[in-house]
Design a protein that fits this description.
The complex is a heterodimer of chains A (162) and B (149). Chain A is built from 6 helices and 6 strands; from the N terminus they run βαβααβαββαβα. Chain A is an alpha/beta fold and 162 residues long. Chain A has a single domain, classed as HUPs (Rossmann fold, 3-Layer(aba) Sandwich), CATH 3.40.50. Chain A has a 5-stranded parallel beta sheet, sandwiched between helices. The longest helix of chain A has 28 residues. Chain B has a single domain, classed as 3-Layer(aba) Sandwich (Mannitol-specific EII, Chain A). Chain B contains 6 helices and 6 strands; from the N terminus they run αβααββββαααβ. Chain B is α/β, with parallel strands linked by helices and 149 residues long. The chains are: A alpha/beta (162), B alpha/beta (149). At the A-B interface, helix 2, helix 3 and strand 5 of A face helix 1, helix 4 and strand 6 of B.
Chain lengths: 162, 149
């Protein structure tokens, strides 16, 4: 039987949880012989909203957008190094806009059949405002979603990969 | 790390004691110092004051979101303060500010920083909820309003 997973996308957002997700995705890609794509989204929608809400000044919005672009490069390079260290091919991509919308679009456009994301908050909020964009994307993408937990276990798995 | 994960009773103060803008900024940063969230009080305060000097983060409806970046924190941190009488914070509508969300991030963490600020911005659009927060009597009630545990 062929592997049910042909193309995996891991969402990288500059958090430790997303790096753990990337390590797990590298393991999965190797074991299932699937293509692997790492994706970072520069959340320009949030930057626009912060300017509109007067929380950001215009020059602050530009500064943070630049910071996010640099963050995207840094994290995607790091994930690329993680994959290279385990002889696994990976494609890295970034885009700008709404995190939720860009994840959904990328999954459809890339023909992804498994989205891998880092652990979400274990705390439930009484407020809808605290449901983050990744969680919204998780509910909306047309493919299966894997939420990676247990950083120590994943690290061991990743390290044991030859 | 979601914004909700940062909120614990020891980073909330109800009511704030300060009656002026410089004093409330110090009081909010002191909350983080007392909670062991920052090492360098002066550097953290300086980052916040420098941002406020450009333009007040006092929004409409009695809410302020002082924020800044500094290497004096290792991860994103927040403090919430509530002033019952309100403080003149040079808010854009000229009204006294009662609800303060302080956010400090290290320079290398723009993603979670922007995400947390965006969540506060969404929250600030609900006047009913902001009123409920202002009417809390202590930190425990603030946490109870925000979290379902």
């Amino acid at each position: 039987m062929n592997s049910p997973i042909k193309k995996i996308m891991v969402y990288v957002d500059g958090t430790e949880q997303s790096i753990t997700a990337a390590q797990f995705a590298i393991c999965l890609a190797r074991y299932s012989d699937a293509e692997l794509v790492a994706y970072y989204i520069i959340n320009t929608k949030a930057l626009d909203e912060l300017l509109k809400a007067s929380i950001f000044l215009k020059d602050e919005q530009i500064e943070y957008e630049h910071d996010l672009e640099e963050d995207a490069k840094r994290y995607l390079n790091y994930v690329q190094e993680l994959a290279r260290a385990k002889n696994t091919l990976i494609t890295t991509k970034s885009s700008t806009g709404s995190v939720y919308q860009e994840i959904v679009n990328a999954v459809k456009e890339e023909g992804i059949d498994l989205l891998v994301i880092g652990e979400l908050s274990r705390i439930r909020s009484r407020r809808d405002e605290f449901y983050d964009e990744t969680e919204r994307a998780m509910r909306s993408v047309p493919c299966s979603v894997l939420i990676v937990k247990d950083e120590d276990h994943v690290y061991e798995l990743y390290e044991s990969l030859r | 790390m979601s914004f909700i994960d940062l909120i614990t009773e020891n980073v909330i103060k109800v009511p704030l004691q300060s009656t002026s803008k410089p004093a409330v900024l110090r009081e909010l940063v002191q909350i983080l110092k007392d909670a062991g969230k920052i090492d360098d009080f002066d550097a953290a305060l300086q980052a916040i004051v420098e941002r406020e000097d450009k333009q007040s983060t006092g929004l409409e409806k009695g809410i302020a979101v002082p924020h800044g970046k500094t290497a004096s924190v290792k991860s994103l941190v927040t403090a919430i303060g509530i002033s019952k009488d309100g403080i003149d914070f040079n808010a854009i509508d000229g009204n006294p500010t009662k609800l303060f969300f302080l956010l400090i991030a290290p320079p290398n963490m723009p993603g979670p920083h922007v995400e947390a600020l965006a969540e506060i911005a969404k929250l600030s659009r609900s006047p009913v909820f902001c009123d409920a927060l202002v009417n809390t009597r202590n930190a425990k009630e603030v946490v109870e309003l925000l979290k379902e545990e």
